[in-house]
Input
Amino acid sequence: MLYQRRIPDNQIVSAKLELQLRGGRYAGVGTQFIGVLSLGAAALYAVEPLYLVSWALSLLALNLWWSRRINQTLLTNRHFSQRPTVLNELVTYSVINGSIWSATLIGLDTYLSDLTFYLCVMCVAIISVVNISVSVVIRGAYLAQLSCSLGVIALWLAWHVDQRPFNAGFALLLVALMVFLIITSEWMSRSFSEMVETSLERAAMSKDLSSLTESLKTRNLQLQDARKQLAEQATIDEMTGLRNRRGVNIIINDELGRMKRAQLPVSLIVLDVDHFKTYNDNYGHPAGDQVLQRIATVMLELTNRSGEFAARMGGEEFAMFFPTMKLAAALEVAERVREGVLNLRIPHEKSLTSEFVTVSIGVVSCIPEWELEFDQLLQAADDALYESKTSGRNRITAGDLSADEESDRTI
Output
């Protein structure tokens, strides 16, 4: 099904009115000027020059005033805001203009010879024919001018059919010309209407398409933001606000690669809540969730530089990654984490280690070689964590990436 924008009738009339005004403000005046010259030349030797000049100046003044009026109308968009008023003005001007021509010709009837009179009749007829090209957009205005000029002249000739030898023939000729112009004006006006409506439909469709394109762009940006938010949510642990394992996997290779290229140290801290299953069994899982959230807060306070992050790797196990940090500094951070958790003073009456919740920590640090993978680093830190847990918990063990596990140091 094709999309077609329906244009309101009043908008079509306003557009046609604008087209009529723009076409008539200069071309219409030019047509009237040519008519004045033609009629003036024909009647020059039959009428007093002063009267002829006065008539010509009056008619030209009327048309110049009308041209200025059109310019003001177009400038202020009155053809949109005051459409009925402008239409009435246009029809009134057409009536006055047509009446002036017919009255002029009737007034000259007693002064002109037969040949000159009929030449003047033809001048008025030619003006009416030429006017169809600039005045037919608003057909009512053109018909008003045609009726008041050729129509009145034809009636005059028919009424005074015996005064001149060819009045009857010219009356019939003018009637035939009027019928032809009326039919032609109907066809031309309909063509102009279709052209205007098509142009407005295309403009409206173009505007709708532009609006739709902007809407789609906005919608696309919203979808991109939504995807970004979903992607971020997919990498964030909902309970603690830390990165989850997926979030770690996304960024760790870039961070580790950067340290490999620069040959700078990296440190990884992993920690596990001591006797957490016992805590959940004793206090309930909601209380256990609160413990994890409070521990996450301690970790977040210590990972605020670029490249550093804290993550929940699963269950009660956490990790902290520090680029450009050596082992000694990493051990200090680990100790601050251990003390920070202990200072939370979260009661844990079933713990075999302390009356409060504690954590066991494993730390590993190295200058990464090109073949080193994060899983190897994580495994070494897990091994150090296991050493802390088997050595009494609530302590820190520094691990080593070498095969010699005896190099682990427990603090």
Notes: The CA atoms of residues 264 and 324 lie 6 Å apart.
